Amino acid sequence: MTQKPALPWMQASIAKSEKALVAKYGEPQHARIQRGLKQVSEFWIDKDGDAAAFEDFVTASFAGDQATLDTMFNRFQDLLEKYNGHMQEIGREFRNQSDLDRGPILPFDDIFAGYDPSAHFSDDAFQNKMAFVVLLNFPLTTLDQRLTEGQTWTRRQWAEARLAQNFSKRIPADVSLAIGNASAESGKYIAEYNIWMHHLVNDKGERLFPAKMRLLSHWNLRDELKSDYADEKNGLAKQRAIQQVMERIVSQTIPAVVVDNPQVDWNPFANDVKAAAEKDSDFAPEAKTPVSNSPEPDTRYAMLLKTYKSVRLADPYSPTAPTHIARSFDEGRQIPEQRVRAILEQVVSSPQVAKVAALIQKRVGRPLEPFDVWYNGFRAKSKFSEAELDQIVSKKYPTPEAYRADIPNLLVKLGFPKERADYIAANIIVDPARGSGHALGSGMRETKVHLRTRVESTGMNYKGYNIAVHEMGHNVEQTLSLKDIDFYFLSGVPNTAFTEALAFVFQARDLELLGLSQADPQAEAMRTLNDFWGTYEIAGVALVDMGVWHWMYDHPNATPAELKAATMQIAKDVWNKYYAPVFHKKDVVLLAIYSHMIDSFLYLPDYPIGHMIAFQIEGQVNKSGKVGPEFERMVKVGNIAPDIWMKNATGQPVGPEALLQATEQALTVVQ
Length: 671
Ligand SMILES: [Zn+2]
Prior knowledge:
By secondary structure, this protein is mainly alpha-helical. It has helices at residues 10-25, 30-43, 51-61, 66-99, 107-114, 121-127, 130-137, 143-148, 155-165, 173-191, 219-227, 235-251, 299-312, 324-333, 337-348, 351-364, 386-396, 400-413, 418-425, 462-483, 496-507, 510-513, 521-554, 560-578, 580-583, 596-599, 606-624, 627-635, 642-650, 657-669, and strands at 194-196, 214-216, 264-267, 272-275, 428-432, 437-440, 449-453. Strand 3 (264-267) and strand 4 (272-275) form a beta hairpin.
């Protein structure tokens, strides 16, 4: 593994500078001086300068008294707000032609849309030593410190910790490039991994799936499996076939020639391959191997290994989170890995699993099969038809301007006091979106946030309105957690799961905002059971993802074949422990089918944690009755650790209790 080269003069220069600074500022500053010198030395490289340059820099840049430190902190706060805000503004303007409903996109518009003016900020800040000023004066912290000591920190201490976190890593350009390349290569492998479903044949040579159906693994395969619950005639046979395909992908016994190839027919049970007896597409992949069932040569695991080997290169340059696993949990989610594991295990081993499984078995009328982890039958019939809703919405909002004008009323209906509703609404600009809609925050207090919404020439339809209400939730959070926050470095929320949960609080009340009564306990209970079962499924997937990353770190020189064997074993272990007891079948590898596992760098634990956070926030808002004041109280605490945020919001840290309680309650409603 690569090591950051040590500088031979560094230890002597640290000792010399420490002495000089203590002499200048006195013993009370000693601990800060030692910390600052250590932090600077951890990131200083040859090209930053020699011993004399290091010593000159640290003596000149240390803020040795509180007044100077305050000035420094305030200046960084003001200037980085301006930097972030203006960079976001440029990015927003550069993407306007692509994002807004403004006529044709010309080829050069994509160049503007793809340009990120702040991409080199970190490199620049180390090169011009802005980063070293921060590292010399403010504390780098580990997640453990933020969670334990952070409980008693002042808001200013939290803000200082967030400021320093901006510079907690200095990843060399060639390492970033290697990670980018591994990400692109694995992403391309995943993006082209299609199965031509009409070419799946059973033992009798029958085709169950329609012509031209081309499904991307795993997303489309899973969604087809879900929709097959509605097919009374062939649904079960189709679902079994899809499960078989998924298992062959995981075990890499899938014949290489069948991947994205409509020119062969494949029986996934017997694993026979023949030249296609029917033609349903002109798609002709070049240079496919001869028609045989030779398996894919473990490419899936070679891709995963490449992503691991690339991110590992960043380890020596990230002292407070020195592995990708640590960066993923400590910096991304900000919840320690062992807590995430405990939370996930609490869900998959909860007593509600067996109860919901029994309910599903009753509803499908047969013993459960492994693919029923994707059961999607907890759906309530809507009280209003989509056409009825379209009519109501298009009349109310014929233009984006009509929606904008109504925002203060909508916020009052959600319980915001009139004066607060006007204040928030005045900060939201509504633009016509080219796509389905999105929300853009502002990054600095002097600019406004943007709500992009899709409005057809016939007016807004219900789908567009539902999305607009969701995005408006983002806009309200973006406004309050920036404009009303005490320290800029604390603006925002802890992570995207919180953003989405808060937006969902708005979205779930869209019918209420139209004046259509929504109280429907049956629908509410169905939604809860659907979420619970989805969380149960994805929690197991996340446990497999985590297990596989640990295995890779423990076996840095593994071959793709060894990684395949380990992944299958980990998937079976998780299945046997938490799924086999309700599915009554052992050694199933389905939990390893997710494509994110191959190209998304340990992303999967975000999903189950997101479900739980959504339940906690929704539960708290429901308890309090009015959305407005509760929403405002929650978001004003800003970007501190998730557990501390959640304790402030609900009295409890992030966890599954709210989801499990709601599930227990739902089981009394849906029988
Ligand atoms: Zn969203």
